[in-house]
Amino acid sequence: MPSLEKTEFTARITFLGLNLDRADSLRNVSVKHVRVGFDGFEGESHSGLTRPSCARVADLYPRNTEIKNTRQITILSAEQLGMIAEKMNIAVLDPCLIGASLVLEGIPDFSHIPPGARLQAENGTTLTIDLENRPCHLPALVINQDLPNKGAAFKLAAKNLRGVSAWVERSGTLALGDEIALFVPTQPAWRP
């Protein structure tokens, strides 16, 4: 039996985004297609084979320790993005405002896909899920630029809905409208 099993779920890419300079802004720009290398999306500021450690791994490493970059790509669900917007009392939440690299439509409970799951495009480009991408306060400033006084609501509204972070297992290309298949680990859940 393989360690990964193809599920019945597929998704369609509805958004691709690049952050050109995260020191300047967390705002992403929308693109129609991207080249995907082992270090992430070409031209994206979160790309790289390694990254400095952050608060997410503070129990493991001192801040800024060089570690493998498993957070090359931020993937959100179109359906959950709609739920966040509803909780924020806004019509639409533009994925560019919250640092989304990729938005998929069609996989339920997307933010809770298990770590180690794979998302594979028909051309073979494959992304490996790292962890749930917990919401933070940083997008609030960018949201407020377009939607004054709405940014503060993001962190609470996005709880359990912020998608996942991922890294590239097989390079290639991704484009708007591409179909993505979900593969999940066959390993049983840990029960200590």
Characterise the protein shown here:
The protein has helices spanning 78-87, 139-146, 154-157, and strands at 4-18, 29-31, 33-37, 40-41, 50-52, 66-68, 73-77, 102-105, 118-121, 126-132, 164-170, 172-175, 179-185. The protein has one domain (4-185): Beta Barrel (M1 Pyruvate Kinase, Domain 3), CATH 2.40.33.20. The longest helix is centred in the middle third of the chain and has 10 residues, at 78-87. The chain starts with a strand and ends in a 7-residue tail after the last strand. Helix content is 11%, strand content 36%. The protein has 3 helices and 13 strands. The mean pLDDT is 95. The radius of gyration is 16 Å and the shape is globular. The strands form 3 sheets. It has a 7-stranded mixed beta barrel with strand order 1-8-7-11-10-9-13. Strands 4-3-12 form a 3-stranded antiparallel beta sheet, with no helix packed on it. The protein has a two-stranded antiparallel ribbon with strand order 5-6. It is mostly beta strands and 192 residues long.
CATH architecture field: Beta Barrel
Helix share of residues?
A: 10-25%
Tell me the number of helical segments per DSSP (H or I, 4 or more residues long).
3
Q: How many structural domains can be distinguished in the coordinates?
A: 1
Number of strands: 13
Tell me the structural class. Answer: mainly beta
Rounded to an integer in angstroms, the radius of gyration calculated over CA atoms is: 16 Å
Shape: globular
**Low confidence ranges:** none
Distance between the termini: 24 Å
Note the run of SSEs as H and E. EEEEEEEHEEEHHEEE
What spatial order of strands do you see in the largest sheet?
1-8-7-11-10-9-13
**Which oligomerization state do the chains in this entry correspond to?**
single chain
Output the CATH homologous superfamily.
PK beta-barrel domain-like
CATH class membership: Mainly Beta
Q: On the 0-100 scale, what is the average pLDDT?
A: 95
CATH topology type: M1 Pyruvate Kinase, Domain 3
Strand content: 35-45%
Main beta-sheet annotation: 7 strands, mixed, barrel
